[in-house]
Amino acid sequence: MRDATCGGITTVLNEFAMSSEVEIRLFESSLPVRDEVRGVCEIIGIAPLYLANEGKLVTVVPEEKAEDVLLAMKSHPAGRDAAIVGGVIVSPPGILLLRTSFGSVRIVDMLVGEQLPRIC
Question: Which fold has domain 2-107?
Answer without folding.
Answer: Phosphoribosyl-aminoimidazole Synthetase; Chain A, domain 2 (3.90.650)
